[in-house]
Amino acid sequence: MTYRAPVADMLFTLEHAAGLAAARGEGLYAELDRDTLSAILEEAGSFATEKIAPLNAVGDRQGCSLAEGRVSTPEGWAATYKEWAAAGWNTILAEEAHGGQGMPTAVWALASELWSQGSVAFGLCPLLTQGAVEALERHASQELKATWLPKLVSGEWTATMNLTEPQAGSDLALLKARAERAGDGTYRIFGQKIFITYGEHEMADDIVHLVLARLPDAPEGTRGISLFLVPKLLLDESGTPSKRNDVVCAGIEEKLGIHGSPTCTMVYGDKGGATGWLVGEEHRGLACMFTMMNNARLAVGLQGVALAERATQHALAFAHERRQGRAEGVSGAAPIVAHPDVRRMLLTMRAMTAAARGICYRAAVELDRARFSADPNEAKAAQERASLLIPIAKAFGTDIGCEVASLGVQVFGGMGYVEETGAAQFLRDARITPIYEGTNGVQAIDLVTRKLPQSGGETARGVIAGLRASASRAAEAHPQGLGHAARRLDEAVDALESATAWLAAPERTQAEALAGATPYLRLFALAAGGASLVEEALAAAKTNDAEAARSKAAIARFFAENLLTAAAGLELSVTEGAGSLAGEDVEAALAV
Amino acid sequence: MTYRAPVADMLFTLEHAAGLAAARGEGLYAELDRDTLSAILEEAGSFATEKIAPLNAVGDRQGCSLAEGRVSTPEGWAATYKEWAAAGWNTILAEEAHGGQGMPTAVWALASELWSQGSVAFGLCPLLTQGAVEALERHASQELKATWLPKLVSGEWTATMNLTEPQAGSDLALLKARAERAGDGTYRIFGQKIFITYGEHEMADDIVHLVLARLPDAPEGTRGISLFLVPKLLLDESGTPSKRNDVVCAGIEEKLGIHGSPTCTMVYGDKGGATGWLVGEEHRGLACMFTMMNNARLAVGLQGVALAERATQHALAFAHERRQGRAEGVSGAAPIVAHPDVRRMLLTMRAMTAAARGICYRAAVELDRARFSADPNEAKAAQERASLLIPIAKAFGTDIGCEVASLGVQVFGGMGYVEETGAAQFLRDARITPIYEGTNGVQAIDLVTRKLPQSGGETARGVIAGLRASASRAAEAHPQGLGHAARRLDEAVDALESATAWLAAPERTQAEALAGATPYLRLFALAAGGASLVEEALAAAKTNDAEAARSKAAIARFFAENLLTAAAGLELSVTEGAGSLAGEDVEAALAV
């Protein structure tokens, strides 16, 4: 299977569509010149290509198994993880105080996409560790930080997030896991957690579980949840993991995909209570969890992009080799890439992938502005823009991950349905991404109910004005090959503006806004994706790379003329669809 | 897992959306009164629910295995197949001369959907037998018919279609399997065929392979292909299968889904040549294959619909049970069916399923008009309408099969990704249907290049005029609850008319038409599906069943206001998208 990490292309998107070049102009990223950035990511790309990618099919075939509480991961998994951590890749984002490199989020995001390109199931493990590192950096006591962060940052230990219980998925208010104060400053944790990614394995010397649970005197609902650090192995006095804590893996799930990643049922406290330490304040655990949500959601959006990238490369290579049917200008059987219908599929794959990537990277750059901008107003505005973009990045990145992987299967025809080819694995692996880390429905609700109202709607209006500016630049520059792109983008921005205004109208009910959330998110993503591709095309036209300029123009044009055309229909679904989702008639249609 | 065959609803669609009631008015279906039709299908529904459906998960888990040339099917598969055949279900469509019942295609289509609702992997076996029966009825000699048809019609023997070879998938001109004249009227067959569904198994006493191969003096390309009947076991003088023919199953595929159905590599002639008999004339084998294509494609479209139906029932039941989050008017945690976003998914599932079903059934009724109409002009016109609708039925039915099954996974959230729930199996099983029996790309090309030009475009114009009439009826009747349905349908028909006119314009190049084929098919399907749902709603409003009337109105309205809204964008993809699929820029974008 052919796969190459498209690092140069990723960097081009980061610089010209996501705004890294502009941010440099504002004085950001000063410590990271272009060559260094490129060198780091080329190195990451080599690791993804040479070390991780070869594990992907093996991981799928072998999967994980559980025996006597021990989970074995696929062949090569543990050794490669250790090699990856030893090379320092786990330390990119963490603070320098605990051994991190404190690098920009953009670097971490692109590296993170690269690990997922290699293997999403593999890359999940450090993704969760990173989330725990962030939560501890922000909320843990100095003592907890000193004890746990250095080895979590280095990757010698890994971490998990324990939120879900059988009755509590999207609705954490329903969770039942309990914590009791032990009297010595520690806590005893009891309860069952499900769907715990990398909850148990033997790739690292210890596993740090971050567990949401309720104290006895906790208020009901989400305001009564606390966050605890519960290690698999308790440390001895030298800080070495030694004694088993009262937590066991009671089962692993048989899943549609990501077989290399163990999804565990974790049982806490069957032997008197697992020892845990409070992170942050009592009853404020959910706020701690929200800390890391932006990066985690962005990384999951990039899993979708990464799988789309793999599926696209895979299908494209096949389409150049496989010969079926006749085509103009080809003698004998033509490679199927010559057939318009196959081209439509492949261009959809390329364009969707590039558009979603642009949105994700844009969110990463805004997160960096929020972290590093010297102007607190600008930092706050950037944080809000990032917050606005992240549900779009997560949902659109993962939705197109599935769509592109499914098109990949279709390009392969019958051979795509046979597991041996590998096309089906991309689809199976992708299908979890719209579900975990907040379902895409939850992302759409977040966008409409929490992110649009930021700063009285000013944040959203500002971002949309930026998309309009891209359409205007395209109309003015009018470089060869963009076809109707400027016009289609302008129309899509019209649709987005109207839908946004409709959602923000004072008479709008909560139910109406929620009804339109999913098509609204898609509409926003298409407009933002279209703008991103146009920016790439405009930037490429100014370079000496004629081939890249042609390619970027073709992708921007295809997206605009074939996918942005959905914008007006989506606007109607938002503004007129609510009535069709409620009422007596609908109850009849949804009766069982 | 809850599943009930929705027979009454299927019959309602058949009568009021697909035109069976109207056809009765024309004198068709005279021998099949409503009670008889209903009784037959209720019986089929019971068999599907009670006997076939319980095998579906078992079939997926156990799959098939090959040892020493013998293929074992999952537990219960063979006994249930024999019981099914003994009950006479295989005989519905076949001619009476060979033990068939010669019933209308509509009856067979609905029954066929029911078997697929029970289990697509199970229902595939008789689907292929039926195809062979049709090919033999039309093209085989009297002697071949007398020898082979009775037991194929009864289902005591099953059949396969052997088209694909490693280098010849959609492009049969490339096939290499050879046939030699043996001098005694029989032929010797040599070669390898892949992806042969039910190519080997022990559910029946014999397997009749219909094999495409080339004679030594055959012209190149598709005009040099002949069709042969090659049994697994040759018959002795009493007509009993006895001696092994020179054909073996050399491998079975490990697939994404339909695990209960063995997908075989068949090797012919390794020991001197498999004995075969010519079906039809030499070099005219492809024409024979085309005979059965309409019914087979329709049945595959209905596999998509059937899986969509199963996934919808499954998700709907879960959405009523699963409680997460708060909703207006519900105390405590609300069933997730109360959340607008989940309602949107469920209504999309219901509406897409019902729309695709209406199109498939309409095609079946037109096939019956073509078979049974006393007026040869009307029979010809009906045949052309059926030919026009069938690529739409196949492609849209199977595309929405995948889309709906994927939404089903999403409704289940994390539990949808775990195989135990069964939601993922529907998606895995559905994913083959857009590929086999002519990929959906091939269907779109067929629609645009062969079906639209029928009778100088008159057939398409007539069908589209019928959709316009549905919009007008909705606008006039204006029953409660249809919202903007009439207007949206009218606009969709506008879009379809414009796109059709664009495709038919004399200056249109082949490349332009092919470039727009896939969005055009989708546009046609949406308009036809929207019209079908509106007709159902109008008909239901005239009955005494207030609940059904409400439900049908809600579904028609939802479809129109949320899914038909894509029509204008699809029109643009057809009429303006071609330029973005070709040229130097696109070559750069698709380079590897």
UniProtKB/TrEMBL annotation, chains A, B:
Q: Where is the Acyl-CoA oxidase/dehydrogenase middle domain?
A: 161-268
Originating organism: Chelatococcus sambhunathii
**Stated family:** Belongs to the acyl-CoA dehydrogenase family.
Q: Which UniProt keywords apply?
A: FAD, Flavoprotein, Oxidoreductase
Top-level taxon: Bacteria
Question: Which ranges carry the Acyl-CoA dehydrogenase/oxidase C-terminal domain?
Answer: 284-447
Cofactor names from the entry are:
FAD
**Protein name stated in the entry:** Acyl-CoA dehydrogenase
**Chain ranges of the Acyl-CoA dehydrogenase/oxidase N-terminal domain:** 37-156
Alphabetized Gene3D superfamilies for the sequence = Acyl-CoA dehydrogenase/oxidase, N-terminal domain, Butyryl-CoA Dehydrogenase, subunit A, domain 2, Butyryl-CoA Dehydrogenase, subunit A, domain 3
Residues forming the Acetyl-CoA dehydrogenase-like C-terminal domain are 477-581
Q: Does the keyword Hydrolase apply?
A: no
Q: Which InterPro entries match?
A: Acyl-CoA_dh-like_C_dom, Acyl-CoA_Oxase/DH_mid-dom, Acyl-CoA_Oxase/DH_mid-dom_sf, AcylCo_DH-like_C, AcylCo_DH/oxidase_C, AcylCoA_DH/ox_N, AcylCoA_DH/ox_N_sf, AcylCoA_DH/oxidase_NM_dom_sf
